[in-house]
Write a structure and sequence with these properties.
The protein has one helix and eight strands. By secondary structure, it is mostly beta strands. The chain has one domain.
Length: 137
């Protein structure tokens, strides 16, 4: 990924990532989704409208329901997520409840390693989408 800066100091190259909580789910804990070739550095990570759940509906917040976080081993902005243990009645409500929509994090590269880890992937729904944008030095 080339480093090309805009006038605002952000790179004009971005990477949108969607982690599907069914297709990219692993019971055994292995990585399901690998995105290679990312440049190490500081990234602005922005949550995009989405959400996931590991239960079949109907959902009964606050004990079951939708939530949002980035299920990647080597990218975990602590505040771009719903509060721990909080569940919502829809993906839209979960996304609206993010603690923060974006954060700058350090990514060591070169591969982004993601998987929704669950004891039963078959009842999962949705997934989470986010954008990674390299911050120019």
């Amino acid at each position: 990924m080339p480093t090309v800066c805009s006038a605002s100091g952000r790179c004009v190259v971005t990477k949108d990532v969607y982690v599907d909580w069914v297709l990219d789910c692993r019971i055994d804990g292995t990585v399901a989704l690998t995105i290679g070739g990312l440049v190490p550095g500081s990234y602005l990570v922005t949550g995009l409208p989405s959400g996931g759940t590991v239960w079949d509906g109907p959902w009964t917040p606050p004990t079951t329901g939708w939530y949002w976080y980035i299920p990647c081993d080597n990218l975990s902005p602590a505040t771009v997520r719903t509060p721990a243990g909080a569940y919502y009645d829809s993906a839209e409500t979960a996304f609206a409840s993010l603690m923060e929509r974006e954060a700058i994090v350090t990514f060591d590269g070169p591969d982004l390693l993601c998987a929704k880890r669950d004891s039963n992937c078959a009842d999962n729904h949705g997934g989470t989408e986010f954008r990674m944008e390299l911050v120019c030095p």
